[in-house]
Amino acid sequence: MSFAVRYPWLLLLILPGLWAAARSSYRWGIPSSRPSGWMARRAALVLPALITALLVVAAAVPERRLAVKGRTPVVDFAVVLDGSSSMLAQDGGAKEDRWNAARRLLRIFIAGRPEDRFALILFSAHPVTLSPLSADHLRLWNILERLQLESRDDGTAIGSALMTAVRRLAESPARSRVILLLTDGAQNRGHVLPMEAAEEARRNGIRVHTVAMGGNGESLFPLEGGGFARLKVETDPETLKKIAQATGGEAFAADDPAGLARSMAAIDRLEKTALPVDAPTEGRPLSRWFLLAAGLLALPLALDLARKRGRRPPAWLAQP
């Protein structure tokens, strides 16, 4: 067991708080209307200062750190999912399009790694963080389940999406940090080049596994009025391979949902690491006890202040 302070910089307010409390003793309250003893005179000065210190400490959120039974996450994942309109394509005669296959297999992947944390990032022309790093797998599952594909701001900004994922993982304390990139296109939007983002990931010790969805041939795309059309999507598997190689990851190709399932299973096997980890802890806030102490000390002063409301300060306040 240990103790920590969640917002230690707030403790800097103690000194100015004590100074303000010492200069406003009458506004804080006086022990009696005609104090004559040493204790009464000092209480009017000491109690406000003590209350101020307790309130500042409570605002800083002191907490007791207790060991938690179980294992700490050894891998933090940032899942980067392509949300461009081309993800509606159906490959290899499959009835399931790329978008629904990716969401389904990601849910299976997350469910199979209960000890790890995941961040979810969706991108088309711009990246959007759907969830920061979280171990709440049910919440992540529900996000993927309800996620809809919108093509109002279409495009493929792979570099920007990867850079967002790097930022999400840069401060992670996990021993292993991994970006999982699923895309079916080539970069055509964004100001960050994919290899620039890959270099930033490498500098931060983050591996990137890439999955190129769809093949080089034509795929079926749904039409607004019904039916399908055969179209070909521009892909860039070579860049995805370079991204993976530059960061120590692996590049996979998925021509259809079955190929995507094989790729996800291979990544799951690659990241089954057995690393030594520190014992996890959780914080138990102690602020309520400081607030309770401050309230008990403030109660008699508040009652006395209410009783003396509108009266002139007694002469003894001016005495040393």
Draw up the topology in text.
Layout: E1 2-5, H1 14-22, H2 25-28, H3 38-59, E2 62-67, E3 75-82, H4 98-111, E4 117-123, E5 127-134, H5 137-146, H6 158-170, E6 176-183, H7 194-203, E7 207-213, E8 219-222, E9 228-231, H8 237-247, E10 251-254, H9 257-270, E11 281-285, H10 287-307
Helix pairs in contact: 1-3, 3-10, 4-5, 4-9, 6-7, 7-8
Short overview:
With 320 residues, the chain is an alpha/beta fold.
What does this protein structure show overall?
With 320 residues, the chain is an alpha/beta fold. It has two domains: 103 residues, no CATH class; 196 residues, von Willebrand factor, type A domain (Rossmann fold), CATH 3.40.50.410. Helices cover 40% and strands 20% of the residues. The protein contains ten helices and eleven strands. Strands 5-4-3-6-7-10 form a six-stranded mixed beta sheet, with helices on both faces. Strands 1-2-11 form a three-stranded antiparallel beta sheet. The longest helix is centred in the N-terminal third of the chain and has 22 residues. About 3% of the residues have low confidence.
Looking at this protein, list some descriptive labels.
single chain; 320 residues; alpha/beta; Rossmann fold; 6-stranded mixed β-sheet; 3-stranded antiparallel β-sheet; 11 strands
What Rg, in angstroms, do the CA atoms define?
30 Å
Portion of residues within helices: 40-55%
Distance between the termini: 46 Å
The helix count comes to 10
Structural class label = alpha/beta
Shape: elongated
Total domain units = 2
Going by CATH, the architecture of the largest domain would be 3-Layer(aba) Sandwich
| Major pleated sheet | 6 strands, mixed
What fraction of the residues are assigned to beta strands by DSSP?
A: 15-25%
Low-confidence stretches: 26-34
CATH domain fold name of the largest domain: Rossmann fold
Helices and strands, in order, run as EHHHEEHEEHHEHEEEHEHEH
Mean pLDDT: 80
Spatial order of the strands forming the largest sheet: 5-4-3-6-7-10
What's the CATH C level of the largest domain?
Alpha Beta
The count of strands amounts to 11
Determine the CATH superfamily of the largest domain. von Willebrand factor, type A domain
